[in-house]
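1st attempt posting a full record on here, be nice pls
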Amino acid sequence: MSSSQESVVGMPRDFLAACLLLLLRQWSMHGYRLMQQLVVLGFAALDPGTVYRTLRQLERDGLIRSHWDLGDAGPARRMYELTEAGEAFLRAWAQGLEHYRRMLDLFFRFYGIEMPSAEGDGAGPRRASGAQESASERGAASSGAKGEQAGGRRRGRTSAGGRASGESEA
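the predicted structure (as tokens):
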């Protein structure tokens, strides 16, 4: 993992490569412009060497191609563009990230902090970490728990053996 990615805890592996492909899906760009756009996507200061090594690897893998732009003003610049193989790879990445996003939504729901969803489905209350439930929320939760207990299931924290706390093995 590069030092620029180590500062972001939990960043998926090869996320930089996927973001470069995403940017190149919209526009052909040179490396310096790509680095500027990565900052817009939330990357902190990136080591240019990391970006250029990643671009070279993407080109070796056939996901992007490059050519020299011999513009009228200034030095020649290597311009990068997405290939059809890169488009297919990016589509697969997007599908994988969608699955990962659903897993993160569930994680934060269980953690007690619901993240806003892209669809705005409004599923459940939003509660800050450590926030207390209101009396009406506790009442609704306990009436739901009673219904589950009547069905033979008990809600609550489970021990390492999978039993709810206070529950003995039959």
